[in-house]
Specification:
Blueprint lengths: L1 H18 L15 H8 L13 E9 L5 E7 L3 H11 L15 E7 L3
Antiparallel strand pairs: 1-2, 1-3
Keywords: Signal
Protein name: TonB C-terminal domain-containing protein
């Protein structure tokens, strides 16, 4: 008797779960564009590289505050003109989808190609 009640309960439970639909769907908060694509919209080819028409790579580090703005921005380049130009172009700009953890340090390489 116990076995049949247990078996009937198990079948009922499995049947209920098979037809159940979740009330809340999970959606990831992934940004539509990745970080590099968003930063590329704000950055132009540096004036310091225009006379030589060279390509270049510059590494930047920053944090994104709760308002999705870039803060604590650092540019790692030997050229002060490039550093200052990138600081002016990027300070206070917004990145969507990355402002959840203000303590996370982001490091990005920016590649410049002559126009």
């Amino acid at each position: 008797m116990k076995k049949s009640i247990f078996l009937l309960t198990l079948v009922g439970f499995l049947a209920t779960q098979a037809y159940a639909t979740p009330t809340k769907t999970r959606k990831t908060k992934a940004p539509k564009e990745n970080m590099e694509q968003q930063l590329a919209k704000y950055v132009s080819y540096p004036d310091a590289l225009k006379p030589t028409q060279r390509a270049g790579v510059v590494v930047i580090q920053f944090r994104v505050n709760s308002a999705n703005e870039l803060c604590q921005l650092e540019v790692f380049s030997k050229n002060d003109q490039i550093n200052n130009a990138l600081l002016r172009q990027l300070t206070g700009k917004k990145l969507t989808g990355y402002g959840s953890d203000a303590n996370e340090l982001h490091t990005v390489r920016l590649r410049f190609q002559p126009e």
